[in-house]
Amino acid sequence: MDNKRIIFSNDEGGVSIIVPAPGATLEQCLKAVPTGKDYQVVDVADVPSNRTFRNAWEMT
Amino acid sequence: MAIILNGTTGITTPDIDSTAGFDGEDLTGDIAAARITGALNATGSAPVYACRAWVNFNGTSTVAIRASGNVSTITDNGAGDYTVNFTTSMPDTNYAIIGSTGTDSNTNPPSTFNINRIRASGNHVDSTTSAVRVTVDPSSNGDSKYVSVAIFR
């Protein structure tokens, strides 16, 4: 999971991104997804590194 | 002393009690406690309480955990807003949350560290046995390159 991220829409209208600790498993990462939330597993390269407008990010 | 594996009669192990440093009588009670505090270089009679979870992560650019213990993930909730998720839950929510944050340039102002707060709205959010929300307020973009959190209980 080191090169993956899990993304979901949060209750504030933005996007939350779950960042795994080195060696963390998918099962451990999914425990951080709030119950009932839809999520996507994406490559870390798919998450923008420029965070200037971080709070304006949306899931597509 | 070597451990001998014998497919016919089972496993033969050394006599633990007779092995230097492994006297079973010494591994319990006050003597064991003294050995533990000694190994931790703790002097005096004050008790020692261990860190139950910790993490050091980069909150800028591609957010990533540098190193951690009993932290499986962090959740990047937005600018300067993160949730630390424990691998094994705490016994209750009365734990102490210790944190630090640092700026990453000569021009950005010093950063502050807060807990139980949603940064975008300013609303309160309770800690749980499995996670704690932390926020940092450093520069205009609201991220911090160095964030550390430690949990004591």
Number of strands of chain B: 10
* Total helical segments of chain B: 1
Mean pLDDT of chain B: 84
- The strand line-up of the biggest sheet of chain A is 2-1-3
How large is the count of helical segments of chain A? 1
Give the assembly state of these chains: heterodimer
Enumerate the strands of the largest sheet of chain B in spatial order, edge to edge or round the barrel. 4-3-10-7
Computed Rg of chain A? 11 Å
Biggest sheet character of chain A: 3 strands, antiparallel
Q: How far apart, in Å, are the first and last alpha carbons of chain A? A: 22 Å
Based on helices, strands and strand pairing, what is the structural class of chain B?
mainly beta
Please report which band the strand proportion of chain A falls in: under 5%, 5-15%, 15-25%, 25-35%, 35-45% or over 45%.
Answer: 25-35%
- Count of folded domains of chain B: 2
SSE sequence of chain A, one letter per element: EEHE
Give the N-terminus to C-terminus distance of chain B in angstroms.
39 Å
